[in-house]
Amino acid sequence: MSDISNIWFVIVNPTAGNGRGKKKWSKFSRWLSKAGLEHIHVFTKGHGDATVLAQNAIAEGYRKIITVGGDGTNNEVMNGIIGQTNVSPSKIIYSIIPVGTGNDWIRTYNIPRKPKKVIKIIQAGKTTYQDIGLVTYYDNGEQKRRYFMNVAGMAYDAVVTKASANKRAQISNKLFYLMLVFRCLMNYKAPKGRVIFDGQIDEDHYYLVNVGICKYSGGGMQFVPHAVPNDGQFALTIARDLPKMQVIKATPMFYNGKAGEHPRVNTFFAKNIQVDALTDEPIFLEVDGEFLGGTPVEFSLLENALQIIVP
């Protein structure tokens, strides 16, 4: 067997893409071998498992990691890479074979959805570095930390994520998801909060507060169209409270990258961001499509922390 540092450690989420991870793994493995990419694999068994598997693999000496899964598994593996202390995270080479339902992170890099094409990209071995976000938040009164690599969403974005958390099987149905989004909107009351970023203070009732490293979230929406993944700063979008019919009318702007042109939406760049609720109710938080908790929330940036395979 080759030097362990040259072997790809593959973390497969068998439930990703409604079971596609498990069903297609044998085929993916054959393609990896045919491409000359020596590898071993493990299947995740539950929530958070991918983080531990990544940490253990690095401790054993693996330096190349592939995720077979969606955005959730992607985030877990990245948390394992960034959170471990055996080696500088930037020394790890990371890639993903996307089989999830959203696959938002890959959009920024134009990574194809077809696994066979992705494996050719992995074989070519071109890498770049991207920034990673660290968010500190509260969950049931306990302060916690989480790394994220794509987009963090607060207020309405997090409310939808929380509502969909126990309905993952149905979320792949676009009609069901749109109905869920509409129901959340009809019941939504924009919370009053405070956003502090690089010395500026903003107070208002917020429809959305999004903090981005990459551009796409929510199945292709661009809440932070100005995000650049390696520029050493967050892209910040603040959308202020709107009448519900105006929200529906403005929705296409969040898909076509023109959100910042709306008069009730402001875009900024910032290195440090704090968000607090100005009422007794917290403003909720999700990162990379996973609901976490709520305010008070603080974002900080780790520059060029993750080395990734790109086309």
Task: Note down, in words, how this protein is organized.
The protein is α+β, with helices and mostly antiparallel strands and 311 residues long. It folds into 2 domains: 4-125, Probable inorganic polyphosphate/atp-NAD kinase, domain 1 (Rossmann fold), CATH 3.40.50.10330; 132-303, Tumour Suppressor Smad4 (Sandwich), CATH 2.60.200. It is built from 9 helices and 14 strands. Strands 7-9-8-12-14-13 form a 6-stranded antiparallel β-barrel. Helix 2 (49-60) crosses helix 3 (71-83) and helix 6 packs across helix 8 (174-187). It is globular. The model has no long low-confidence stretch (mean pLDDT 92).
Q: How do the strands and helices of this protein lay out in sequence?
A:
Elements lengths: L7 E5 L3 H19 L4 E5 L5 H12 L3 E6 L1 H13 L9 E6 L6 H4 L6 H10 L2 E13 L2 E7 L2 E5 H9 L3 H4 L2 H14 L4 E6 L2 E13 L21 E7 L3 H7 L14 E6 L2 E5 L6 E4 L2 E20 L2
Parallel strand pairs: 1-2, 1-3, 3-4, 4-14
Antiparallel strand pairs: 5-6, 5-14, 7-9, 7-13, 8-9, 8-12, 9-10, 10-11, 12-14, 13-14
Helix pairs in contact: 2-3, 6-8
